[in-house]
Structure formats: C-alpha cells, structure tokens
Amino acid sequence: MVISSSTLIGVSLLNKITKIHAVSKNLLEKDKTKEFEWRFGNIKYRKKGHGNPILLVHSLEVASSSEEWFKVIDNLAKTHTVYTIDLIGCGLSEKPFMTYTNHIFSQLISDFIKVVIGKRTTVITSGNSSSFVISACDNDSTLFEKIILVSPEKLSNGHLIPGKRARTYKAILCTSILGTLLYNIAVYKINIKHNIKQDFYKKEKFTDDMLDKCYEAAHRGLSPKSLYSSLVCFYTKNNIKFELSQIDNSIIIFEGRFNRDSSDITKEYVKINPAIEAVIIDDSKKYPHIENEKEFLKALNIYL
Questions:
Q1: What would the pLDDT profile of 194-215 be if each residue is shown by its tens digit?
Q2: Is 127 strand, coil or helix?
Q3: Where are the membrane-spanning stretches (predicted)?
Q4: pLDDT tens digits, one per residue of 139-171
C-alpha cells in the first residue's frame, strides 16, 4: 500500500510539473483576444481588419490553435475582416471534460458566424476541420459565402467509428492519474515535434517557437486530454459524403504539392461534388499557408 500510494503521488506530481512547465512561457496570450460565451464553454478568438468577413479554422488537433494562421492573417486583414478562432478543446478556449463530436464543432462554427460575425462568411479550414465545416454548411448554407479546404482529410476517414478497444482506451484516458500520464506521454514535446514535422516539406519551417506554442496549447485548460481521447478513439469522425454532394456553395481545395495522397483526396472530393476546384501550392505538404505563404496568398486572393 505504501509503494502504491507513493507511486500515485509521484505520478500525480509529475503530471502537475509537466503542465506547469508547458504553459510557463505563456506564448499564446501575448496577443489580446476576445471571448464568445458559448453553451459548452467560452471560446477565444481574434478579430482584425475591415471588409468582407473571413473565418480561419485551424486543424483539429490537441496541439493546434489559431496560431496556425500567423503567416497569413496580416495580409488578409488588409482587405477583409479576419476572425481566427480557437476551437473548443484547443488553444486558449475552454477545455471541458466531455466527449467531443463532429456535431459539437459543426454547431460551434454555425453559432459563431450567427452571433459574432453576423453575416455570410468565407470559411478557410485546415486539415481534419474540413468535415465539420462541411456539415455546418449543409445544415445552413446561408451562413457561408465560400468554403476553402486546406489539406482536407480523406473522406474515407469518416467511416471510422469507436469500437470496443477505442471505448476501453477512452475510459482509461478519462482516469485522473493514469489517463493524464498517458496523455502527457502522447503530447510530450519530442512527440509533438516528430508528428508535426513530418507534415512539413521543408522541416526547418517548423520553428522552435511554433513547437513551444503547440506544446503549450496541448497542456492548457481544465481537461485537454478529453479532446485527445475523442480524436484517437474516432468520436470526432463523420461520414460527410452526402452533405458534400448537397452543397451548392463554392468549394476550393488547396493542397501542398508534396502532401501525401493529395491527388487521391482531391479526386475523392471532386467525384462527390464535381463543382469543387483544386489548387496546388509548390514547396509544401500539409501546411502550404505556413511553408509557402506567398504563393498560398497569391492563389487565395483569386477566389476571395
């Protein structure tokens, strides 16, 4: 009993030290943010510029935040009102202890446009955020002007559902001490660096400052592991093929030339909705808006 108690105390202390160290630099709060009081938790966002509204939605990962768009915000704000949002469970927004689903994020985007922006909006998404933005548009297309998907995930990923093993693993992750330890190992700084760097064509483009911000984002808030458990156990997945086929809004896909399976992913989307256009950005993989922001902005301005 003494050994078990000492071990639990030691692990608990290690978890607390890890969290304190991760957020110690306070990098994400350097710029002033606004707050949207949403029913599932307060949402942090930034607003910049004047003109027709653009909403930038970062990829749905535990280490993600609105900082993902730092290289393109200022340029877009010259001619548009740019909103950058930290999704619930991410960045500076609240991270309640709950199961995160595609529907929750879809509702967040719709409510944010209705309440905060208040007019038809062009939405630019990154990575796996494409699925819930498509769902939101299908639910109420009047909220959306254009939808631009940057490196969207495979449509086939929407078929993934939580199985018995996934539900068991999620239950373990929800435990106070062991679950937090497993989460801290998964989002250990070296692991974040490895996972994100492989999505860059030029590895040096992923800087130490960006890594520190990702590390901080993964440890902020009440329960950051709740989003992680929902992601790895497929609770955020949704089959959007039918919704995609019903949308009449203009949809454009931006892909990095060296992004894995980019050609197949684009064909998959165009097969469902032939009106979708595609743009290829040179010298980049999953994050063309970071790796080659000049070419990205040049191509983007054609559609805005």
A1: 999 999 999 999 999 999 999 9
A2: helix
A3: none
A4: 999 999 999 999 999 999 988 889 899 999 999
Q: What is the DSSP letter of 91?
A: T
Which of 30-50 are b and which e, b meaning 16 or more Cβ less than 10 Å from the residue's Cβ?
eeebeebebebbebbbbeebe
What are the boundaries of each domain within the chain?
A: 2-303
Q: How many CB atoms lie within 10 A of CB 304?
A: 16
Contact between residue 276 and residue 282 where contact means Cβ atoms under 8 Å apart = no
Q: How do strand 41-48 and strand 34-38 relate by DSSP bridges?
A: antiparallel
Closest CA to 132 of 102, 159, 112: 102
| Topology at the third CATH level for domain 2-303 | Rossmann fold (3.40.50)
Q: What is the phi/psi pair of residue 105, to 5°? A: -70, -35
Quote the tokens at residue 138: 């299908």
Helix, strand or coil, per DSSP, at residue 158: helix
- Measuring CA to CA, how many Å separate 29 from each of 35, 38, 131? 13, 20, 28
Confidence of residue 16 (pLDDT cuts 50, 70, 90): confident
User: What sections of the chain are H helices per DSSP?
Assistant: 2-23, 73-76, 102-112, 130-139, 164-173, 178-186, 189-197, 208-217, 224-232, 241-246, 262-272, 288-291, 293-303
Joined tokens for residue 131? 């699925």
- The pTM score is 0.94
Q: Which residue has the higher pLDDT, 230 or 8?
A: 230
